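As a warm-up, study this chain.
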Amino acid sequence: MNRRKKGIQIVKARIKKANAKLATNNKPKYISKAERETIALAEAAEAEAKTAPIDKATDATD
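Now compare it with the structure written out below.
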């Protein structure tokens, strides 16, 4: 490989790395299985808590 080609190759590699760093990442952040389970349990408890006061309010008006 001649000197000119090697220089161009190095510059192209640097440009490629810079562009990769600037590119937005559309991939969602990894959440472990245990964290997903705790989040699901928290959401279920939250949903249950939201429905519970509504039921009590309807019982009181009847």
